[in-house]
Write a structure and sequence with these properties.
- GO terms for molecular function: nucleotidyltransferase activity; tRNA threonylcarbamoyladenosine dehydratase; ubiquitin-like modifier activating enzyme activity.
- InterPro entries: ThiF/MoeB/HesA, ThiF_fam2, ThiF_NAD_FAD-bd, ThiS-like_dom, Ubiquitin-activating_enz.
- Pfam families: ThiF, ThiS-like.
- Keywords: Nucleotidyltransferase, Transferase.
- A seven-stranded mixed beta sheet has the order 8-7-6-9-10-12-11, sandwiched between helices. Strands 2-1-5-3-4 form a five-stranded mixed beta sheet, covered by helices on one side.
- 33% of the residues lie in helices and 21% in strands.
- Helix 2 packs across helix 3, helix 4 packs parallel to helix 5 and helix 4 crosses helix 8.
- The chain is α/β, with parallel strands linked by helices.
């Protein structure tokens, strides 16, 4: 009968047990992903089962890494996700979180756009560490992405986006994530895309400051190519700062919206 091992078809004898297959394929593996779930039982394999064998701490090849992603996402999802290019405009609390979620999803290419460096005050909500202070955010985030999925293609653009360069910088992306802190920059990129780049989808965010309930942060489709995340109310202001929990909730709403756009479930 036929099963899939690291997403490659292989003929095995009917009645083969999972642990016997492990001895044949990768006897030193200590994690077994069986049909998308980690298992510890010695199960009897069935026709068309999918199995991935993993050794903890071992850096996989690109082929094996993709097989592991496929084993979790299902083949159809992964094939779609890896075919997309996403541009992330702003790599602060929103953008750094979005980028890592999309990298973990296995998005084919990320265009990382930011002109700034990591500062100590960023560490309360952005996905950087003390070792990154003083580094360009594009470089720091590339380092982090490589530590969780080194096979995502990265393009870094160390520029300040304005009306004069938005179209050029984002010309070749499929989906744009607006992730700025500055309200004026948010408005400029959103209006430019809606007016001049109607073939692009844009996922923007507004209203995630403070320590209010996270349940008010929602994803909304405003029009054909415009999606807005947040509570639409609680912007950062004196006495109401940007804090890690609600910012990360909004960022992952953005990442999930990107995924749903890719899968045609928007």
């Amino acid at each position: 009968m036929e099963v899939y091992i690291n997403e490659k078809p292989r003929d095995i004898a009917k009645g083969t047990m999972l642990f016997d297959l492990k001895k044949q394929i990768k006897k030193d593996s200590d994690v077994i992903v069986y049909n998308g779930f980690i298992v510890k039982e010695n199960l009897e394999l069935k026709e068309k089962d999918r199995v991935v064998f993993i050794k903890r701490g071992e850096i996989p090849s690109e082929e094996d890494m993709e097989a592991m992603l496929v084993s979790r996402h299902t083949p159809l999802v992964h094939e779609k996700v890896k075919g997309y290019t996403v541009g992330i405009a702003g790599l602060g609390g929103l953008g750094s979180n979005v980028a890592l979620s999309l990298a973990r999803l296995g998005v084919g290419k990320l265009v990382l756009i930011d002109f700034d460096v990591v500062e100590p005050s960023n560490l309360n909500r952005q996905q950087y560490f003390i070792r990154h202070i003083g580094m360009n955010k594009t470089d720091a985030l590339e380092e982090l992405i490589n530590e969780c999925n080194p096979f995502v293609e990265i393009e870094k653009r160390k520029v300040f986006l304005d009306e004069n360069n938005i179209e050029d910088v984002l010309r070749n992306v499929d989906i744009i994530v607006e992730a700025f802190d500055n309200p004026m920059s948010k408005a400029i990129i959103t209006n430019t895309v809606l007016r001049d780049m109607k073939d692009k989808k844009i996922v923007a965010a507004s209203g995630m400051a403070g320590h209010f309930t996270g349940n008010t942060i929602v994803s909304r489709k405003i029009r054909g190519n415009f999606y807005l995340i947040g509570d639409g109310e609680n912007e950062a202001r004196p006495g109401q700062g940007l804090m890690a929990p609600r910012v990360a909730i909004a960022a992952n709403h953005q990442a999930n919206t990107v995924l749903r756009i890719i899968l045609g479930e928007e």
